[in-house]
Specification:
This protein has 180 residues and is α+β, with helices and mostly antiparallel strands. 23% of the residues lie in helices and 37% in strands. It has helices at residues 19-45, 59-73; strands spanning 53-56, 74-78, 83-86, 93-99, 102-104, 106-110, 115-121, 126-131, 135-139, 143-149, 155-161, 173-179. Bound molecules: dinuclear copper ion.
Length: 180
């Protein structure tokens, strides 16, 4: 029987399964299970696959929180587009907003301090990628994603959008500063 023709036996599901086929089903099943259990394993022992929290929100609610933080803690402005650089207090909830095509605002954090990084999108799906440390997270409208982070190395980190979001997707860049 060839895969291109209809089965010779109309009741094909009663035919015995070939040994080779059973072997492949077995291999595929074992591989599925290995991949499945790698997720919790790597979360616990590999220090990866961080667990975040997620809450319902709306663009209006979320941008109000962002504006509140920007108003209270802006220390200077930067870049040609006059972005606020915000220095929120250590241990606080900090807000990062994604929209076509920017990350807003610029955050300035202290090394060794822990923050709750809240993220949401104003329009559609974006992906936050923090480089060069390679932290990745989906950023969706209607959801407020929270990652608890403790930056350890002072420096300048680039925020890249890694979810295709339109013509200026490649220009959707942001920044986080970590100071001593
Ligand atoms: Cu935002 Cu791609």
């Amino acid at each position: 029987m060839s895969a291109l023709q209809p089965p010779a036996q109309r009741i094909w599901w009663n035919q015995p399964v070939e040994r080779a086929e059973l072997m492949w089903i077995g291999i595929a099943l074992v591989w599925c299970l290995i991949m499945f259990f790698m997720m919790p394993f790597w979360h616990v022992f590999g220090n990866q696959n961080y667990s975040g929290e997620a809450y319902r929100t709306t663009p209006e609610q979320f941008s109000a929180k962002v504006e509140e933080m920007v108003e209270q803690y802006t220390v200077r402005h930067e870049t040609a587009r006059n972005y606020p650089v915000v220095q929120p207090p250590a241990g606080s909830d900090i807000y990062l907003l994604a929209r076509l095509w920017e990350w807003y605002p610029i955050l300035e954090l202290k090394a060794g301090e822990t923050y709750r990084l809240n993220m949401s999108s104003m329009d559609w799906q974006h992906g936050l990628s923090i480089q060069p440390i390679n932290i990745n997270s989906q950023v969706l409208p209607g959801y407020q994603k929270v990652l608890t982070i403790t930056p350890t190395e002072p420096g300048e980190y680039a925020l890249v959008c890694n979810e295709y979001c339109g013509v200026l997707h490649h220009a959707m860049l942001g920044k986080i500063y970590v100071t001593e």
